[in-house]
Amino acid sequence: MPSPQHPELPLSRRGILAAAAGTAAALTLAAAPARAAAAKPRRPFGRYGAPAARLTPQTLYVDPQGRGDFTAVRDAVAATTGSGWTLVLAPGVYRETVALDVTRTEATWIGAAEDPRDVVIVYDNAAGTAKPGGGTYGTTGSATTTVQADGFTARWITFANDWLRADHPEITGTQAVAIKVQGDRSAFHHCRFLGHQDTLYADSIALAAFARQYYAHCYVEGDVDFVFGRATAVYEQCRFRTLDRTDLAAAPYGFVFAPSTAGANPRGYLVARSQVSSEAPDSAYKLARPWVPSSDTTARPMLTVRDTRLDAGIDAVAPYTNMSASFPWQSQRFAEYRNTGPGARITVPENRPQLTAEQAESATRAAYLGDWEPWKGEC
Q1: Exposed, middle or buried, 316 (CB in 10 Å: 0-12/13-18/19+)?
Q2: Phi and psi torsions of 209, nearest 5°
Q3: Contact indicator for 306, 336 with CB cutoff of 8 Å
Q4: Could you give the angle at the alpha carbon of 140 between the alpha carbons of 209 and 291, nearest 5°?
Q5: Is the separation of the CB atoms in 310 and 346 below 8 Å?
Q6: Closest C-alpha among 144, 151, 239, 236 to residue 195
Q7: Which of 111, 217, 259, 376 sits at a 20 to 30 Å CA gap from 190?
Q8: Segment (H or E) for 306
């Protein structure tokens, strides 16, 4: 079936996730570099310099067509040591897995086209995918990109995992992470996160570490628990989109959020001034369920959704459910405030815990992130 945006290009399996973002964002992965190259043929790095005119001595340029210092993101990361490196990524599809370890702090990755559709880091491992040396990858190992370092910033980049259940009916471990973020002070501006199950893993490096993360003007899509983990994370002016599923006969199709906040952490996930939309039938999705992992049975998952539009894809009657009967959602820290849309209708009050106006004064980005203010400055 051809892509409606590019009738001359067939919609490949690797393009399905990108195209699912909707008309405004639809772009097959195969078409991304061609479109961007046509628009900016002579300046692959836009306003961010070039190898012959570096912005700083610690700026490296990555371009799959060979016009930079490296053709792969992972090779550029390997060339950096210590703190403060910037990678400028030319338009293209970077089909690889990438890991930024704890030693490479204060790193910045910039999509040079300033459009996240044009710079895509993607791979297709799932939790149940067999590893070359034996065993399987597991959820963490399935991540296309892993960020462990503190002080990471990304702008205008798509992080994707395009593993599809339909292609691998023999695999039961269907978690397929686009990015796992563990570092403190990790900020993402104008980025996209594409996947199905476990798309965005907003976590921390250790159970006792309360990593702060900030996502602004981002797009996230998926089906099962596609924003999950134990980080203290603020999602501001973001769009979350639930996918349709033809492999299920009845709802629920999935769950948007699955926080696993440590019991000692006073701040979990905060969603503010955002939107949850859907391509699935009405009421097919739950807004959240608590994840109390076996590694931390004292966790008390925390999610506050405020000033956000919840479209009809969210079950307004029962927006929350349990992952385990041993840890009912009512015993966790779920709350809402001033949400709108058909998915936010309060028909059964006990199923929709609401903050008071006084409590809402503490449900802000400043309260969650403290002295770190990633919304300031250029983004």
Answers
A1: buried
A2: -90, 130
A3: yes
A4: 65
A5: no
A6: 144
A7: 259
A8: strand 302-306
Q: Give the residue, 36 or 295, on which the prediction is more confident.
A: 295
Residue type, 282: D
Backbone phi and psi for residue 369, each to the nearest 5 degrees, phi listed first: -105, -10
Taking only Cα atoms into account, the Rg of the chain, rounded to an integer number of angstroms, comes to 20
Cα separation of 91 and 119, whole Å?
5
Q: What is the DSSP secondary-structure string of 39-66?
A: HSSS-TTTTS-BTTB-SSTTEEEE-TTS
pLDDT bin (cut points 50, 70, 90) of residue 377 is confident
Q: How far apart (Å, rounded) are the C-alpha atoms in residues 318 and 338? A: 17
Give strand pairing partners of 358: none
CA distance 33 to 119: 8
- Over range 98-111, report the average pLDDT: 98
Q: Report which of 171, 158, 234 is spatially closest to residue 197, judged by C-alpha positions.
A: 171
Over residues 274-310, the pLDDT tens digits come to 999 999 999 999 999 999 999 999 999 999 999 999 9
Question: Any idea what the Cα angle at residue 188 is, between residues 185 and 189, rounded to 5°?
Answer: 130
188 within 8 A of 179, measured Cβ to Cβ: no
Helices (H), the chain: 16-19, 32-39, 73-78, 138-141, 357-360, 365-369
Contact 97, 73 (CB under 8 A): no
Q: Distances from the Cα of 7 to the Cαs of 3, 28, 59, 130, in angstroms?
A: 5, 11, 38, 36
Which 3 state secondary structure label does DSSP give 251?
coil
Residues of the chain above pLDDT 70, percent = 88
User: The tokens of 371 are what?
Assistant: 């002295």
Asked whether 182 and 140 are in contact (CB, 8 A), the reply is: no
